[in-house]
Amino acid sequence: MDHPYLSRLDYAVLGAYLLGMLGVGYYIKRKVPNFEEFLIAGRSMTTPILVCTLASTYYGLDVLFGTSEMAFNNGVVAFFGYSQLSLAVYFFAAFALSHRLRAANFTSLPEILERNYGRTAGVFGGFASLFYSLPALALFGLGRMCEVVFDFDSRMGALIVGGVALVYTLWGGLWAVAITDTVQFVLMCVTLAIAIPLLMVDLGGFDTVAAALPAGHFAIFGDMPIWLVLAYTATGLSILVDPGFYQRVFAAKSARQARDAMLLSLLIWFAYDWLVVAGGMLAAAGIEAGILPANLHSNDALLAAVMYALPAGLAGLFLAGVLATAMSTIDSYSLVAGANLSYDLYRPLARRRPSDRELVRITKLGIVLSWTLGYGLAYMFDKLLALWVFQATALTSTVLVPIFACLFWKGKKTPAACLLSFSSGMLSVLAFYLLIEHFGEPSATYGTYIWTFSLAGSEYQIWQEYSLFFTLPISALGFLIGNCFGSNYAPPAEAEARR
Amino acid sequence: MNGWDLFTWLNCAALAGAAIVIFALFLKDAKGILTARRIGTRDAQAAERAAAETDRS
Fold this sequence. Notes:
The complex is a heterodimer. By secondary structure, chain A is mainly alpha-helical. Chain A has helices spanning 8-29, 35-40, 47-58, 61-74, 77-96, 98-103, 109-117, 119-133, 136-150, 154-203, 205-212, 226-235, 243-251, 255-288, 301-309, 314-349, 356-378, 384-408, 415-439, 467-482, 493-498, and strands at 441-443, 448-455, 458-463. Chain A contains 21 helices and three strands. In chain B, 95% of the residues lie in helices and 0% in strands. The A-B interface holds A 30-34, 37, 42, 44, 46-49, 51-52, 175, 182, 185-186, 189-190, 192-194, 196-197, 200, 205-207, 209-210, 218, 264, 267-268, 270-272, 274-275, 278 and B 1-2, 4-5, 7-9, 11-16, 18-20, 22-23, 25-26, 28-29, 33-34, 36-38, 40-41, 43-45.
C-alpha cells in the first residue's frame, strides 16, 4: 500500500467514499415502492438532481483519460476539434428532444418504437439498447485505474469497486443512482477545479507549457482532417438515442426541468472539458520539465500530474472523484440494461401483464446480468475503446432514424420502414467494420484503422471513425424503402386500454 | 497572465461554483423528495394491504 503520492489519509478518504455510496443505496432501498419509482424515480426529478446525474453519467473515464491523452499528444485541438463540436448536438437535444419525449410519458427508449411500430420493433430496440448499455469500458477503466494508482490487480479492482456500484443500484434503482451521482458529480468537478490550478501554479502556467511543447499544440484544429473533425462531431449524435439520456428526461418532473438541466450540464461539460485538456497539456510540460517521470504513458499522465500537485487528503478526494466518474457511468447503464430486459423484452413477450413486483425483480436480474456481461467483455477484448465506438455506432445506425421519424414526422411511418431501417443500419455497420479491418491498416499514431485507396488518380482515405457517414444514410434509405410497404401501425385495443 | 491561464482560471471558477450551487439547490429539494418518497412508500404498503384483504374476502 506504499505509494509515492498517497498517504493513509487519502486511503481513509477513499474507503469513506465507498462506504458512503453503499450507505446511500441502503437508505434509499426502503423508499422505492414500485417499478416506476425504481426505474424513472416516479417522474419527479427536479433540475438540480437531473444536472448532477446527466453531467456525471456522460462524463466517464473515457473523457478524463481519453481527452487528456489527446491533449497530451496533440494540444488544444482535443478541446476545440474533439469535445466542443459534439456539445452542439447536446444543445439541439436540449431544445428539440426534451419537450417531445417528456410530453409523451414514455418509460424507455424502445417503448417509443413499440408504440409507433409494434412489438417486434420494440423488441429489436430493446436488444440494441441492452447491447449499448453494457458497462464494459467503464469497468475496464475502473480496473485499470486500480492497477495504476493502487498497484492492485485490475480484475479484482473492477470487481470490488464496480461491485459497490452494482449493489447500491440493486438496492435503490434510479433514486440511488441519481443521489450517488449527485455526490459523485460534486467530487468530480470540485477536485478537478482545485487540482488543475495547483498543477498550473507548480509548473509556472501556460508560459511553461508554450516553451516546452511544439507550437502546433496551440493550433485550434491542429492538423486534423476536416472529415475527422466532422466524424468526432458525429459521435455526439449518440446522445440523440442514448437510453440513459432518455431515462433522465422521462424521470424529469417536467419538460422544462429536463431542458434546463441539459443547458446547465452544457456549461459543466464545457468547463470540465477544458480543465481535462489543460491537465493533459500541463502533464506533457511536466515531463519535459523533469517534474514527472519521462516514461509516463500519455493515458496516465493527467492522473500522475494531479496526484503530484495535490496535498494529502485532497489526492484521496480526487481519486474518489475519479472512481466516481466511472461508477456513475456503470450504475446508470446497468440500470438501463436491466430495464431493457424487464420492460422492453420480458413485458411485451410475456403472456400476461407482469406485476410491478415482478418487473422490479426482473430488472434487478437484468442489472446483474448486464454488469456481469460488461465485466466479461471488459477482459475478453483488448480494444475496449473500439468496442465502445462499435456499440455507439450500432445503436445510432439502427434506431436514430425510426425514433426521429416518430418524434418529428407526422406522416406515414410503417412497421416495415422501422424494421428495414434497423436491419439495413445493423448490416451496414457490420459490413463497414469488416471491410475497414480487412482493407485498412492499423494506425499507431491515431489508434484506429485507415483504409487508403486510389481512385481516378487521386488518393483517398476512409477512417474507422467515418462509419456513421455511410451507415446512417443507409438506415435512412432503408426507412424510405420500407415506408412504401404497409400502413401505419395500429395498436391492439388491449394495449390501448392498458395505457 | 497568459490568455490560456486566464481561460483555465475562469473555467475552474465556473466548474467549482456551478457544482457547489447545484449541490446546494439539490439539498434544498432533497427534503421534499424524501418526504414524497415516505408518503409514496406508505401509500404503496396500504394499497398492498388492501389488495391482500380484498383477495382474502
